[in-house]
User: Fold these one by one.
Assistant:
Number 1:
Amino acid sequence: MRAVLFTGRGEVRVASVAEPLISDPGDAVVRVRRAAVCGTDLHTVAHAEHVPLGTVLGHEFVGEIAEVGPAVQGHALGDLVVGADFTACGTCWWCRRGDHWECPRRRFFGTGASFGPALAGAQAELVRVPFADTVLRPVPAGVGLDAAVFLGDTLATGYAAVRRAELQPGDTVVVVGGGPVGQLASLVAQACGAGIVVVVEPVADRRGLAVSEGAVGTDPDRAREVVEHLTEGRGADAVIDAIGGPPGLDTAFALVRRRGVIVSVGVHADPAWPMPVGRAFADELTLRFAIGDLMRDGEALLALVRSGAVDPTVVASETVPLDGAPDAYRRMAERRTLKSLIAF
Ligand SMILES: [Zn+2]
Ligand SMILES: [Zn+2]
């Protein structure tokens, strides 16, 4: 089969590799119909720690069940399914609580050994999915392929951010970063009762998309002024950091009101950051981190999409065939596109 492979720092190629086989009774093999390219893929290719050459990339996918192991009960051949971006056993103490990310059997598709033992990715004609009854979710009629492919990561992450912010109706929410996750966090916040959502983003096109999708857009330099104007000087009730690292957290602290909530869903590579604890204490701030989980939140995500409350396809810049994936990676890395889908 053909797949997108990591072939060297900063380099991806489409090439032929062996087809995946059922290796555990709980496995399924999925024939991929849509895969998406994610910022995590760009990071994996650019930094390449723990990623062997020849790794099949990608972790966002929707497709049809092509083969099931003898223990799989919930899926039949031909069923349309969407995959979570990581695997979990579904039966351990953590999984029973819905905390799949903490599962000791976690593996993350297409990222080498970065988040658990390596597991081949989903930018491929076929992908093997361990614990298929837990990791795969049926895609109901009325949810298209181009929307379903967002459920496994980008929309799940935006949703996790909004849920952890525990919004009250009418809240003013700031989203730091207008990348795909930030854009979808804005849409979910609007669907979940936010009064005003402000997206802080330096790139004009991304700001423009946020505004056309119902948010207030601002450049980072003017963010404090805009938020103060909208909140009578108080600051935002909740801030979602969708860029990560010290800049995301610093911006969030600068914009949150007293007793407000910050939820960070951006990726953090730095081991430490000087938290403004004096202010956090005096203003009784809450800082949380969240990771998306289709296995936990799938019903809510499907309801948001199926009802029309959220249309995740607004962040898809282009759909390319498999052979176009390397160029699509390049355009995304150069920020000429927001998000690329691969059609099979
Ligand atoms: Zn992703
Ligand atoms: Zn588990």
Number 2:
Amino acid sequence: MKKITVATGHLQGCFGCHVAFLDLHEELIEVLDLIEILRSPINDVKEIPEVDLGILDGCIDNEENEKIAKVFREKAKKILAFGTCACLGGVPGLRNLFSREEVLKRAYLESESTVNGSIPQASELPKLLPYVKAVSQVIEVDYELSGCPPLPSSIKETIIALVEGREPELPKRNLCHECVRTHKELFIPRREFVTDSVHSIIELDRIDESLCFLEQGILCMGPATREGCGSRCVKANTPCRGCMGPTPDALEQGAKIINALATILPAGGLMFMEDVVGVGYRYSLPVSIYPCLQPIYEHPRQEEKNE
Ligand code: SF4
Ligand code: SF4
Ligand code: SF4
């Protein structure tokens, strides 16, 4: 099979998506038989060459991110938005709840560890954009692979599909479908409430390791999250936080979990949740279609939904 040429770029994020390549362990050798990486932050090549595939991780947070994404679009035949920050804005996107000025003030002047702080002003520093954006809100994206970070097996499958000229197949259902916990109540419409309230996992003394979190009254994002991670947190006795993003038919991950919780809680129960945005939009705030949460961009998942 002919190798395809690849350039990878890191925008704004924790770099975990690039590190996830290394989680392929010995299978990385098989992947490297399929692709030739001409540029990446790891080999520290600065120039972006012409390639078959550009892989971008991280969101668009400052002017430099925006510039790099645009050069990638010019130089790469196809672009893969890699990881949840790139696909949906990710955790850094939560800064969209505040203005740029508020964020800078909090980080450089008001943080608990700051003494005589000042906001950096050097002209070489890339300027923070007013709002965080997903990559597809700045350039046209051909493929997306979500996950914070994406699963190594999904990375391998995606690369193989692209080398073979196929569209990578993404899971379409929600996480509860692949979850190994018993969830006999969750999918059954019924009049009785499943739970009186939802809790954080640390608020309870005892957790049944085999029963659905939501059925125990523990907040889990499974109903509003795309399957495909192998329910890795849930298996480790930790509720899902939604890092794979919404299912293609949901569009709005936050609205989807609000809808799901509203069906299992007593009327008005949601009013007692302190951080609905932080729960429902932790990974997807920049692509929310609600104008009250941020400026209106063209919604990147609309196309996938219309297909
Ligand atoms: S998606 Fe997650 S792992 Fe990847 S860069 Fe963003 S925060 Fe890091
Ligand atoms: S809500 Fe969470 S624990 Fe329950 S079935 Fe869905 S993913 Fe599993
Ligand atoms: S269980 Fe949820 S938070 Fe954990 S990896 Fe899967 S989608 Fe992400």
